[in-house]
């Protein structure tokens, strides 16, 4: 009889709707943190209810825990009543996006915590920051007893959690920036554990998580070093310029390699590639109008015929088809020169067509790089897949226009 009672109470206190809402919140914050550098977890919460105690250095700690903790525990976050519940809009944000409940910091806070005892017994996880405020420089303050009294009252374990990376992601009074967030879940402590024991466990987890090296690829580090150096933008510019004249490999291939390796450099590398592409296209047009024919490997007569037909119908705006039909940009530049398309019209039309493609591709690969941050050690395999996919796609395009 006693073994089935907790499961019955779990159904009453933690309905499917609550678990579904928790799953949505977890998906939301996992997605947000994935785009800002990634999130990874070590360890799991025990079955049943528990009080989670964690270090606190950033508002992003709440997002990290909601992304890392299992939705089946429907985590509830203790939030400062005088800040997060001081106005209706903050209250709505806290409750809906963080499953927050108010805890008074000056009188009555213990009563607020004890209202969660029944939900803990039913299997819920209650997350508290026992320091009571955000710390600085990674140092943990003293722990208040409230979380431990709540755990003892409800008869559930205390679970220490160490969070690393949030102080770089969103520093106290600082701006949001890219950083990998790591959450380490420790072994449960008994309900009677004291503040010093809980604090020591969180400190140990935090230090171990901070000190744990992020596994990386030597190839990625070398590519990132070049891409982030003063040679990165000139390399992107020259690659795109050469492709617009004769080089058979698209600048998007280069962006696929370097923007994943160093996502923060994606905007300037993409703009460098765009500038090189436009400069190369303009040179190609001028050379072709003067009767110069440059080598154009991996192009076909059918491609050139299609571009001549489009130019005859649409003039310079025909280049808008280039991002979608697979015909190299160099073919459009050369044929536009032979057709006598004005250089100003060509530059304006190609800037619009190439700009939308190059910038979208560069930023898309940057987003992929952020998502792959926790898997950087596989960067070499990624390059193999990128090269293989590019080769297969190029082969299909050339065969289709043969």
Mean pLDDT: 89
Structural class: alpha/beta
Number of strands: 7
Oligomer: single chain
**What is the overall number of helices?**
19
Low-confidence stretches: 1-13
- H/E element string? HHEEHEHHEHHEHEHEHHHHHHHHHH
Shape: elongated
Profile the largest sheet: 7 strands, mixed
Estimate what percentage of residues fall within beta strands.
5-15%
Radius of gyration: 29 Å
Helix content: 55-70%
Distance between the termini: 76 Å
Strand order of the largest sheet: 1-7-6-2-5-3-4
What do these coordinates show?
A seven-stranded mixed beta sheet has the order 1-7-6-2-5-3-4, with helices on both faces. Residues 1-13 have low confidence and may be disordered. The protein has 402 residues and is an alpha/beta fold. The protein is elongated, with a radius of gyration of 29 Å. The protein contains 19 helices and seven strands. The longest helix is centred in the last third of the chain and has 29 residues, at 343-371. Helices cover 58% and strands 8% of the residues.
